[in-house]
Amino acid sequence: MKQILLLSLSAITIGCSKPKTFLLNDTGKNKNYVSEFVNNAFEQNEIGASPIIVINGKPLIYDKSKDTIIVPLKKTDISSLEFLNKNSSRIIYNEKENDGAIIITSKIQP
């Protein structure tokens, strides 16, 4: 009985979790450009709810307790946007509780 209850609670917790909202320092629909990318990777179970954001090779430090994170770029500043799955990002960035990584290559230095 305990196992069924634990399994049910785990499924509810995992099913109800959602990724952080990463907003660009931009206006209109451009603000959600990174967040849409994160949501797609999250839905494919490639990344977790709090991925590392890497801009030009440097991890962006953000408060993981907040639901909305401002990325200091505009959509026009981004030349490419990719992600690393949980396992790859753990190997590269050496963090035990890593939820994957969003790799942003920008045209400018942040």
Q: How many whole angstroms does the radius of gyration measure? A: 15 Å
**SSE succession:** HEHEEEEHE
Number of helices: 3
Low-confidence stretches: 2-16
As an assembly, this protein is single chain
Strand content: 25-35%
**Strand tally, please?**
6
By secondary-structure content and strand pairing, the structural class works out as: alpha/beta
Give the % helix: 25-40%
Net shape: globular
How many strands, what sense, and barrel or not for the largest sheet?
Answer: 4 strands, mixed
Protein name: TonB-dependent receptor plug domain-containing protein
Organism: Flavobacterium ginsenosidimutans
Key features of this structure:
alpha/beta; 110 residues; single chain; disordered N terminus; TonB-dependent receptor plug domain-containing protein; four-stranded mixed beta sheet; two-stranded parallel sheet
Topology (SSEs and partners):
Layout: H1 2-16, E1 21-24, H2 33-43, E2 52-55, E3 58-60, E4 68-71, E5 78-84, H3 86-93, E6 101-106
Parallel strand pairs: 1-4, 2-6
Antiparallel strand pairs: 2-3, 5-6
Organism: Flavobacterium ginsenosidimutans
Protein name: TonB-dependent receptor plug domain-containing protein
